[in-house]
Amino acid sequence: MDVILAIRNYLEKIINDTHLVGMKSLLLDAETTTIVSIVMSQSHILQHEVFLVELLQATQLHDEMLHLKAAVLLRPTLENVELLKKELKNPKFSQYHIFFTNHLPLECLEQIAEADEKEVVIEVQEYYADYLAVSDTLFHLNIKESIASTMKYASPTTAGIVNSSGIARPNAIFDRNVEGLLAVLLSLKKRPTIRYQKGSESAEKLAREVSAKIQLEQSGLFDFRRPEVQPLFYVLDRRDDPITPLLSQWSYQAMVHELLTLSENRVDLKNVPGIRKDMKEVVLSATSDAFFEKQMYANFGDLGMAVKKLVDEYQAKTQTHENIQSIEDMQRFVENYPAFRSQSVAVSKHVTLMGELARLVGTDNLMDVSQLEQELACSDDHNNHFRELVAKLKHSQIKPQNKLRLAILYALRYETNSSVQIKIVKDLLASSGLSSRKIQLIDSFLKYGGASVRSGDLFGDRGLKKFMRAMTQGLQGVPNVYAQHVPPLIRCLESIVKGQLLDNDFGIVNGNVVPGIKKVRDVIVYICGGVTFEEAHKVAELNQKIQSSGQRVILGGPIIHNSSSFMHEVALTHGHAEEEISKTSSFTAVNIDSL
Fold it and tell me: Could you report the per-residue pLDDT of 530-589, keeping only the tens digit for each?
């Protein structure tokens, strides 16, 4: 199972279609632009006689190009069907080869046929590239406000495939979850046993609707050859673990997303002090950057050593003799040797990112903040934790946003303790300049993911089994940091791949439960409400461990959260989100030129 390979295979079939030989145009919508751009480079597309890549609605702005054929890749939304009908009434290309990323209802196909008065449509096909493949084992659906929608789902029986992509209503968001998951299963050619987290209404509704759609499918789409070992599909709920998205991160990919926001494989650095013109936006993609592919899960210290090694190798080749001992030394070296920048743009990019991450770690006192976060997440020591929290809340060099995160973690850990401490915490937050609406987020988190709504014991007995895992000292100026926290998802997955199907924790919607050890091979896990890069990192590590046994886990969610986007979405559930909380992980449509 490989979601990047699955999407790429569809795209290769389109640009290599035997009916599309010769010069052609590739017409996309905003969402398929993103889907394509994160798995395939523009240079690769151009190698296959693609003369032009543009949005479907942009064709009306230029003259006819009848010497070109058009390959059209669209999501099957009402809006896109209307745009396509308009295009066919006034065609700008000689032929149209149309590919929808999901199921197209018959009535929509009939409308397209009626609009094709000039008979320029050669084919209409369904290629299930209806999700964003971030890595080989991580995908998301680019759904914002998914947490709020889980609190007010419409009846699953109202779910339908075609919706206007611009309408953010709860049942439309629910429908999009269903559509995306069906596309994932179809692209991977899996018809799995579907299970859901008991106690989660949203997980159960989603699991049952996906199962119902599979059962009702009449065209044989899911009639795959039955494997020896049945695939498993688990639907979990973010509410059962509100801790993981709130924590500071120290592995490269997760750290970039937490501090700078990684959106559609791009990092916006234009507001970084002293940033060079060529570094105002950089691309971080494991599919096009070999260094990032190798180091994306490296902790910050090891990352520094890896970048320093590349700089040292360049020095040896050019016989320069700068004394490089720290991140700042590397930044100065890159500035002083323009030839290095031009010959090694990738390394220059990573030096720039490291420099900004190091600056933020220092100015925001993130080492101190992170240590308390880890203690709150992993151990039970109320008196010491309260004393440390009060000290952090009084610290003038800690950002209010980070103080709020610490307060939320404290409240989740000790919600059954005296309310007196929580009042003190709230008063200290107010003294730090946080508005009452932001401070209310503490209560919102307790309503969203407190003990009364969680399915399991989030904290368990980890206080008794507390352990410390130090990150390696990487560079001068990057001290050891601790990463005690292991997402509960991983403990769950470790049991699943061992064949312990956790029947007491998971319901089943399309199969019979047979007690005892089961064979497990392919596992797909979807977390309602969003996933994190920390969880993706741990899933990648687990896949390395189980690779020899032929097992594989794929992780997905409606969106990939950092702490800011997660806090923003939880705030929306109780109607008091503020702009300051919303430094989100939003995945907006990329510019067409960035393909």
Answer: 999 999 999 999 999 999 999 999 999 999 999 999 999 999 887 655 544 544 444 333
Same fold, 3-130 and 133-241+487-561: yes
CA distance 547 to 233: 19
* Helix %, strand %, coil % of the chain (to 5): 50, 15, 40
Q: How far apart are the first and last CA of the chain?
A: 25
Kind plus residue range of the DSSP H or E element containing 347: helix 345-363
- Tell me which amino acid residue 133 is: A
Please name which of 358, 354, 388, 361 lies closest in space to residue 373, comparing C-alpha atoms. 388
**Residue 348 confidence (pLDDT):** 80
Cα 470 to Cα 299, 466, 534: the distances in Å are: 10, 13, 16
488: DSSP letter: H
Q: Are strands 95-100 and 121-126 parallel, antiparallel or unpaired?
A: parallel
What is the helix (H) or strand (E) element at residue 124, kind and residue range? strand 121-126
Helix crossing, 327-336 with 300-318: angle to 10°? 40
pLDDT tens digit sequence for 470-524: 333 334 443 444 578 899 999 999 999 988 766 778 898 876 555 555 788 999 9
Q: Candidates 3.10.450.50, 3.40.50.2060, 1.10.3470.10, 2.120.10.30; correct CATH number of 3-130?
A: 3.40.50.2060
pTM of the predicted model as reported, rounded to 2 decimal places: 0.87
Higher model confidence: residue 61 or residue 261?
A: 261
Q: Which CATH code for domain 133-241+487-561? A: 3.40.50.1910
